[in-house]
Description:
Elements (H helix, E strand, L loop, with lengths): L1 E8 L5 E8 L8 E6 L10 H9 L2 E6 L21 H19 L5 E6 L1 H13 L5 E5 L9 H15 L6 H10 L17 H9 L9 H14 L2 H4 L8 E6 L9 H12 L5 E6 L12 H16 L2
Parallel strand pairs: 3-4, 3-5, 5-6, 6-7, 7-8
Antiparallel strand pairs: 1-2, 2-4
Amino acid sequence: MHSTTFSMKSPDGSEIFVYKWAPEAGVKPKGAVQIAHGAAEHALRYERFGRFLALAGYVVYANDHRGHGKTCGGLEKRGIAGPDGWNGIMDDVHQLTEIIRKENPGLPFFFFGHSMGSLIAQGYIQKWGSGLKGAILSGTFGSLGGDPAAIALLAEQAAQAMGYEAPSPVFTGMFASFNQQFQPGKTGMEWLSRDEAEVQKYVDDPYCGFAFSNQLVIDMFSGAGGIWIPENESRIPKQLPLLVVSGELDPAGANTLSVKQLVERYKANGMTDITMKFYPQARHEILNETNRDEVQQEILNWIEAVLVK
């Protein structure tokens, strides 16, 4: 396999950085997979998964979202996504989709989203799900411990007091709450994985673990509120194959409760092809967990099963 990078320019002039992993030259890919990474991390953290899929015959793309990784333009700009950042992130993801389709005409297309990326994926399948062969939600959730509008209002109040680009205490409080069930801990990020080395990599990475700006929290929770409106959830194609995978001890998914609630809503809307899997004792980042090889293989198995449906 081989890996490359490139940038794409959004209509508002933002430069969005993209990673690509592909099978070796001369090998026609079986399908294309687009990855949306989570909050306060970056797309290069999915290199192991991207390489795994590329070696299995898939071409894989993942961009750094606004305010993240090489897209943000420097450490001092982490967590700042600009005006209407959430919709900008969604538009960037779809712009990358159009590039992928142009580069790989006719290939079956899958969308994978982890954590915040799974929220992006939830919105994506409402708008563009008809163009997908399948979608995968990893470390997902159907709520975030409160009314999204109320959380956005708290961030708005913080923004008026501190500034819209200031680090959000609402965001840092949410991350801190996720680690409560794993206290005492060495890093405060034990909720991510049982693999201490993987957690330490996250802690040591300057492009991980930063706080979102107040503005991005406002935008993200306003966006979540729209995604979780029943009318919008009902727009997801009923026949779309959907894989939902999480750790049993993932606090972002309320230790499976919020995940199950999301799936129940989807089934009530008439979705007929949902596979849900919880990994015992696993935490939030199942692709960086102690059983990551099992997780990767089972995601691949699901993709290949969908291809022959």
